[in-house]
Amino acid sequence: MRYPVYSVTQVNEHIRDLLEADPGLGALFVRGELSNYKLYPSGHHYFSLKDEAGAIRCVMFRREAVSLRFRPQNGMKVLAFGRVSAYPRDGVYQLYVSTLTPDGVGDLHAAFEELKARLSAQGLFDGDHKKPIPKFPGRIALVTSPAGAAVRDMLRILNARWPMARIYVVPCRVQGGEAPVEIAGAISWVNARKCADLIITGRGGGSMEDLWCFNDERVARAIYASAIPVISAVGHEPDVTIADYVADLRAATPSNGAELAVPDQSEQYASLSHLSARMAKAMDRRVQYERQCLDRLSACRLLQNPMAWVEDRRARLDRQGERLTHSLTARTARDRENFARLCASLDALSPLKVLSRGYTVARGPHGLVKSVGDVSPGDRLTLTLSDGTVGCTADL
Amino acid sequence: MPTKKQPTFEEAMARLEAIVAALEKGDTPLEEALTLFEEGAALMKQCAKALDQAEQKVTKLLPGPDGSPIEEPMEELEL
């Protein structure tokens, strides 16, 4: 029997062609467990899928890998979709993976998206509905498991930052089927009894199934209905649950929740210090200012020697008085002079004065004699002199 | 005589800010400024004391038979 002799490449290419010719291998799902997971600098993911009896080599190229919605880890049960072929260069057949999802969780993803869309449409995620977180909460309710790292971390951080707040741990399950009822119930009860100024609800990291209770509609509605602000602090980044969307504030982890819930007391100390300094400085400036005003006033002559001021005023008053009197007397003297002068003039003009100088007033039968024509010979005349009258007869 | 209810830390800090702002503005009469300063000093003391003396109190809170809150001690946790 003559056997054919081929080159290596020919054999590999033949195997590849055989595989690619099989439609069953062209598009298929493979269920298995991840192992030997390696991410290369090229961005391509190389791993194996295995079950109890065997393993198959896989590759997921960078272009497909960017759509991965979870972090693949060895040991994870997954569902891979792709095709089987062979790479002639190294003679290895591989599953070329185009999508990779955690197994059994495919349904959960769909449920998550459905609930998220529905609650969003009903307005449960609306920003307007979200309440502000109180700056200095007096009482904080932790709706979480009373055991485990999450509550321990939260208490430690709350104590370091703001020991002034009173902490109430309202215990509930945070995974499993009974958890949603317990979480929702605890949130409603804290509201009914008004036990706190702030609620933090959450749990530590885990798989999507572990965190699933915080994707429950009952928990979402309890958070929405809460009049007390709620911080949701579930798992690790980048896990986002429905509770995170509904809550008034979302924390990346339980520890982050504690940080967001309270102020840092060392910052408050610093604030107080700063305020104290400002207040002292303002008061100091004020006192300095008032003192300056006072100094300015005391420099004023008036306040230094008030009597001098009074004396000065009095002197002025006296001077005014003198001038007044002086002007009055001067006036009076002047008036008197004028009067005397007028009297003298009047006197000079007086008819009596004229008479005393020798003139007479003659009256005839026809009245006052002012001309020789007024007198006829033989007329009887009366002469008025300064001191009496004389009768006489006119001669020719 | 009934004592006036002590302001909360938040209220005290807010009032302190207001007092400091007023004093910095400087247009209150001197007597009033002095009164404000006194009030500020007292509030500062109160706030510092609250911070100094704060000690975390942690308890479990559970509904009792009638639904009203009952406090229970928290088990020893490694903090």
The whole-number mean of residue pLDDT values of chain A reads 90
Q: Total number of β-strand segments of chain A?
A: 14
Strand order of the largest sheet of chain B: 1-2
Radius of gyration of chain A using CA atoms only: 63 Å
Series of secondary-structure elements of chain A, N-terminal to C-terminal: HEEEHEEHEHEHEHEHEHHHHHEEEE
* Helix vs. strand class of chain A: alpha/beta
Q: Which sequence of strands runs across the widest sheet of chain A?
A: 1-2-3-5-4
Put simply, the count of helices of chain B is: 2
Largest sheet of chain B: 2 strands, antiparallel
Q: Tell me about the biggest sheet of chain A?
A: 5 strands, mixed, barrel
Strand content of chain A: 15-25%
In whole angstroms, how far apart are the ends of chain B? 44 Å
Biggest interface and which pair forms it?
A: A-B, 42 and 40 residues
Which regions of chain A have little confidence, pLDDT < 50, spanning 5+ residues?
none
Poorly predicted runs of chain B are none
Secondary structure topology:
The complex is a heterodimer of chains A (396) and B (79).
Chain A: H1 8-21, E1 28-39, E2 45-50, E3 55-60, H2 62-65, E4 77-87, E5 92-102, H3 106-121, E6 139-144, H4 149-161, E7 166-171, H5 179-193, E8 198-203, H6 217-225, E9 230-234, H7 242-246, E10 249-251, H8 254-261, H9 265-299, H10 301-304, H11 306-349, H12 351-356, E11 361-364, E12 367-368, E13 380-385, E14 388-393
Parallel strand pairs in A: 3-5, 6-7, 6-8, 8-9, 9-10
Antiparallel strand pairs in A: 1-2, 1-4, 2-3, 4-5, 11-12, 11-13, 13-14
Helix pairs in contact in A: 4-8, 5-6
Chain B: H1 9-25, H2 30-53, E1 57-63, E2 69-73
Antiparallel strand pairs in B: 1-2
Helix pairs in contact in B: 1-2
